[in-house]
Each structure stands twice: as structure tokens, then as C-alpha cells.
Amino acid sequence: MGIMIRLYRHFTEQLVLLAIIVGFSIFMSLASPHFLKAGNLLNIVQYVSVYGITAIGMTMVILTGGINLSVGGTLAMSAWVCAFAMLNGVPWQLAGLICLAIGALVGVINGCAVSYIGIPPLIATLALEQINRGLQLVFSKGKPLHSFPEEFLEFGAGKILGVPMPVIWTIVLFLVFAFFLGKMRLGRTIYAVGGNPQATRIAGVNNSRVIILVYVLSGALASFAGLILVARINSAPAVIAQGLDMQAITACVIGGASVTCGGKGRLVGTFLGIIIMGLIQNSLDLLNVSAYYQTFAQGLVIFLAVSLDAIRNSYAAGDGGLLSILLRRRKGEPA
What does the buried/exposed string (b/e) look like for 264-299 if buried means 16 or more CB atoms within 10 Å of the residue's CB? Predict the structure, then answer.
């Protein structure tokens, strides 16, 4: 019984998210007969695979107290270089490694700018986003690339036992990095650097190296997501992954990560956040909601997620925010 209570307290936020998913699914199963079909459920995870894989890296960056707005540009630039290389005779495996290397290099630049130069993460990564977008447009001249090798297309459009490869890649990567953050010493250090950087510095941890590492992982994961996307659609468009950063950040915040203070968040929460976002998008499509209203709904979800994060942190810290005061008075606590 004691173990069950500890597990409940440990995963309270995740249980709430799971309850939201179940309730939403019940509602949609009544609203649309197509919702619970296996094909539709797989489509939901496949749709969010690019956001989900990118959100893994974003979670780690947020855990250190940072933010990464360059993931969309990193994906676009690295995926285009990979596509160009394949169309010019480079084996797709080597082109894929080049793609990941570009993402890692962008991460190194971001990490050094934040940890050594002292540029705020928001500014540094936003600058790299614009640089990457600009370079990709200069190189592509606004023209898409397509018709890639069949072996490469299987990487993102193939299936194993009827399950699409993007779904498999997403689940595998979430499991691998959940183990990394939860069970490995370096993963726990990432939490410590974000939660109390002064203490880790006194303990002998090189905070700058840890910060650079998470940005490298974030960039490489964004590039990997780009590989999957290009392989799935058999095209490298001139404009791609617009709004990827906001989608990834929203999933992290819905899942319990905090954009205002580091050291808080779990990948299981991020995964549930991604599923919730996919459910919302899929439901709007099934209900034939206008694309204009869908854009409004996505913006509303982002606003609510960040607002709830601010309220949650204000309440936990005992700050004087209005909603925090009201919640404390409701519970009989001093404001």
C-alpha cells in the first residue's frame, strides 16, 4: 500500500494527463465513429512523431533552465543538406550522418553561446533559427527536392508488423532517453544543473559542458526528426517545420516541464503532452473544423499551457500572483 501511495505522489501530474487522454478519447469515440479505429490511432502518433522526437531534446534543454527556438531551422537546414547529398550520389546512410552532424554542430554553437558567452538562451537560439532558415533558403533557392532512394524512404515511410516507422522511432527514442534521464548519472546531473546550478558547480560539475551536451542532443534529435519527415513525405520542401519550436515547447509544458525554472519535468509527461496535442489536432480534423479555427485552437493551447506553468510555479514558490493567492486561500493556507 505504501508503494502505491509513493507511486501516486510521484506520478500525480502524469495520472492527470492520462485521465485527460482517456476522457478525451471517450468523448471523441462518441462524436466520431472513426476515432477509435486502429489506423486513426496510429495516424495520431505518426502525425506527432516529428514534434515528439524534437520534444525529447527540448525537454532536456528546459531541464537545464534553457530554451531552444532553433529546432525548426536546424531541422530544415540539416534535412535539406541530407536531401541534396543523396540526390548527388552520396549514400543515404552517410547523408543521414551528415544531417545529424549539422544538428549537433548547431547545438554546440547554441551551447557555447549560452554557457560561455552568456547570451540568454531565447536570444541565442532565435538567432540560430534565423541563420539556419536563411541559409536553407539561400541554398535551396526556394525549390523543393524530391525522388530519394527507396531504401531511405523505408526509413520514414516503411512499416514493421503494420506499425509505421515514425511511430516506432518515436516510442524507441522516448524509452531510451527516459532511461538516460531517470537511471544514468549524467541524466540525473542534467536535472541537478537546472535545479541548483550553484550546488552542482560547488560539487565539481562542469555546468557549461552539461548545457552544451543538452543543446547538442536537442539539435541532433531535431535533425533526426527531419530525416524521418523527409523520408515519410519523399520531399524536402523549401519551407518546412514552421512552428516546430512552439509545438515542442507546448508538449513539454503540458507534460509538466517548467519554462521558468529548471530541474522540473519528465519525459513520460512530455510523451503524454504530445499525445494530447495529437488528439486535439486529430479531433478537429475529424469534426471538420475550419483550418482558421484550428490555428486559433493551437495558439490557445500554447497560451493555456504556459499560463498553467506560470501559475503552478507561482503557487509552489508562494509568490503573490492573484491566482496563487486565491488557490492558497481556498485551501486555507496563508496568502
Answer: bbbbbbbbbbbbbbbbbbbbbeeeeeeeeeeeeebe
Which residues are 145's β-sheet partners?
236
> What is the domain extent for residue 233?
13-306
Is residue 323 in some structural domain? no
The pLDDT of residue 10 is above 80: no
Q: How far apart are CA 116 and CA 253, in angstroms?
A: 27
225 within some domain: yes
Per-residue pLDDT at 1 exceeds 50: no
pTM, two decimals, is: 0.89
- Contact, 286 vs 28, CB < 8 A? yes
Largest CA distance in the chain: 70
Rounded Cα–Cα distance for residues 110 and 10 (Å): 33
Torsion of CA 305, 111, 174, 172, to 10 degrees: 150
Bridge-based pairing of strands 163-164 and 145-146 is unpaired
Nearest of 189, 94, 81, 184 to residue 138 by alpha carbon: 81
Burial class (CB in 10 A: 0-12, 13-18, 19+), 115: buried
- Measured between its terminal Cα atoms, the distance across the chain in Å is 34
Looking at the DSSP bridge assignments, the partners of residue 235 are 146
* Residue 296 within a domain: yes
- The set of cell numbers assigned to 36 is 477509435
Grid coordinates of 289: 473544423
Domain count, the chain: 1
Read off the pLDDT of residues 282-319 as tens digits, 9 standing for 90 and up. Answer: 998 888 888 778 878 878 887 877 777 777 666 666 55
Query: Domain holding 128: CATH number?
Result: 1.10.3470
pLDDT, tens digit (0-9, with 9 covering 90-100), for 20-58: 899 989 999 998 888 988 889 888 888 899 999 999 999
Q: What is the dihedral sign for C-alpha 235, 292, 123, 69?
A: negative
Cell 504556459: give the residue: 306
> Does 5 reside within a domain?
no
3-state helix, strand, coil in the chain (%, to 5): 75, 0, 20
